Amino acid sequence: MTTEAPKPQPEQDKETRLFIETLEKTGQIVDVDEHQDTSQLPAHVTHVRYPDGTIKRIRFTGPGRQ
What is the pTM of this model? Predict the structure, then answer.
């Protein structure tokens, strides 16, 4: 028996699209290939997009822990 992942709701799709657009506008997301060393990317880059469309977070920004 296989179970399928639940399909995202339209509101989630819209939210995701807006979030990615914001990352693109601010330069926080860049396109990379599978073999690229993401540790060498500039510090302001927080997300990467692979050729298959997968997006991964590579850094966190914001105030550090206290």
Answer: 0.71
